[in-house]
Amino acid sequence: MKVLYEDNHIIIVYKESGEIVQGDKTGDTPLSDTVKEWLRAKYDKPGNVYLGVVHRLDRPVAGIVVFGKTSKATSRLSRMFRDGEVHKTYWAIVGNRPAKESGTLTNWIVRNERINKSFVYDKEVKNSKKAILEYRVIGVGERYTLLEVKLLTGRHHQIRCQLAHIGCPIRGDLKYGAPRSNPDGSISLLSHKVEFEHPVSHKQISVVSPLPGGRLWRELAAGVE
Questions:
Q1: What is the pLDDT along the chain (225 residues), one digit of tens a residue?
Q2: 20 to 30 A Cα–Cα from 115, which one of 90, 142, 173, 219?
Q3: DSSP-derived secondary structure for 182-214
Q4: What does the alpha-carbon distance between residue 74 and residue 68 come to, in Å, rounded to a whole number?
Q5: Pairing of the two strands 145-151 and 189-197
Q6: Which residues, 6 or more positions from 12, have their beta carbon under 8 angstroms from its beta carbon?
């Protein structure tokens, strides 16, 4: 487990693609349990370790996950994520280069929970939620393009479905139109950076994720500042 930041109130870790943040019907060990065990061992705690889940990443996505170590931090962080006070930057590898080098995508998204998929519309429809993101091209290779994406809203599968809607499905994301899967079952989407005011100390926190393994990530990210 890679710990990217820790203090008395919060811990920020790197999630590998394929890991689940919180327990689900699969019965697989969630990242939250792994972090609890790490904290128990590090601090030699005999009883239960408190850990608050304040946000999630889709299972095939890698990158930064923030947890609360105290109930005070957890409740405040949960509100901050909900209110958009945590600034999240993602990197995405796509097969088709966008028509514009940068832009803002504004759509309306309807989530279908039965099939765990979201659908994108260009105007408001019944049960839709407004979804806004900004993107820019930051790396170009022979077959793939690296995008930086900043979320201005937090909707279900937002980056995945909005990029697919402009003809740029994320590499490996079969659910949203990628032509083939990645060998490891991941999709090439990384929670790259989080920035926020610490919920207790009020100092500015900025954490950057390491890159996932693989030559393609390294090549496309080479030279990116």
A1: 899 999 999 999 999 999 999 877 777 899 999 999 999 999 998 888 999 999 999 999 999 999 999 999 999 999 999 999 999 999 999 999 999 999 999 999 999 999 999 999 999 999 999 999 999 999 999 999 999 999 999 899 999 999 999 999 999 999 999 999 999 999 999 999 999 999 999 999 999 999 998 899 999 999 786
A2: 90
A3: -TTS--SEEEEEEEEE-TTT--EEEEEPPPPSS
A4: 4
A5: unpaired
A6: 3, 4, 5, 6, 64, 65, 66, 67, 194, 205, 207
